[in-house]
């Protein structure tokens, strides 16, 4: 029997409230440039999978203790952060994840998470409902598992059906093209399945180890544009930059990383994004409005060929204002992350 998303009265009320809170955060972002709109925070670098293109996980890290996670989230609240997204590693391997989510809601932020979905079950989904999760993103790379990725529709479809029945939060399924994914057409099947289950669907382009462009092959670009044509309830509306990327062209935009977007690693340091770790590399506890203002005005030389979609989307809010006065070249003369391929949008 085909399972579509269950819409309870409570679920509809929560979705309506979420939309109101989203509108409020957009209003706040338009009214003021002095706070982060989104922060991605890593409570757990460990991952239960080992995707071949990923440089954002290990097999040994311990979870960040919950008391420390609470302190870090309080600091994001102090800076006025509107959306906090948990990534990893695999967040569902953190033993106190529900309390991490509760703390995010307590400081007034929208609470999101990026997961590979493997550890979801009905009880876990109900706990995430109760903790107040607003958004979940699951990345699915292919239909059948292979040596590149086990984030596969065949393995995860049961989890998606569980989410359709039990989740009170918004669910987005992200599929990818490029970076060694063998069958670009799989992305179309995954996108259609997501929409049939009542979720939203996005597509990303896999980038290299510095967040930079890897041009798509012809068949990958065709799939990308066909997915973009599947307009129905496509969650991410600010993805125009990806069309230039798909065609191998640079983008003209102002990266506001370090200001409107923060990446907080497992050691509690603020970085521009998952692919420019080490810049600015300041402890979150010491990060101030002054840093937020400085980075807002600082252009990053990696921006023309950058594929980090969440930073593009957040920076779009200020595209029309505040030209940047200073310039920094992340990665120049510093230790760079691995040159392995990694996915866009953080860990998944
Ligand atoms: S892409 Fe996600 S699921 Fe795969 S190894 Fe990296 S963190 Fe784990
Ligand atoms: S342009 Fe910004 S988001 Fe992109 S890689 Fe550079 S610092 Fe990161």
Brief write-up:
The chain has 348 residues and is of the alpha/beta class.
What descriptors fit this protein?
single chain, 348 residues, alpha/beta, TIM Barrel, 9-stranded mixed beta sheet, two-stranded parallel sheet, globular, binds iron/sulfur cluster
Can you walk through the features of this model?
The chain is an alpha/beta fold and 348 residues long. The chain has a single domain, classed as Alpha-Beta Barrel (TIM Barrel). 33% of the residues lie in helices and 14% in strands. The chain has helices at residues 9-31, 66-78, 97-106, 122-131, 153-166, 186-196, 218-229, 241-246, 289-296, 309-315, and strands at 38-41, 83-86, 110-115, 135-139, 170-177, 200-205, 261-264, 269-271, 280-283, 298-300, 326-328. Helix 4 (122-131) links the parallel strand 3 and strand 4 (135-139). Helix 2 (66-78) runs parallel beside helix 3 (97-106) and helix 3 runs parallel beside helix 4 (122-131). One iron/sulfur cluster binds next to loops.
Give the total of beta strands. 11
List the ions, cofactors and other small molecules found in this model: iron/sulfur cluster
Tell me the radius of gyration. Answer: 19 Å
Question: Which sequence of strands runs across the widest sheet?
Answer: 6-5-4-3-2-1-7-8-9
- Measured between the Cα atoms of the first and last residue, the distance is 30 Å
Which structural category fits the helices and strands?
alpha/beta
Shape: globular
- Helix run count: 10
Main β-sheet: number of strands, strand sense, barrel status? 9 strands, mixed
Assigned CATH class: Alpha Beta
Strand content: 5-15%
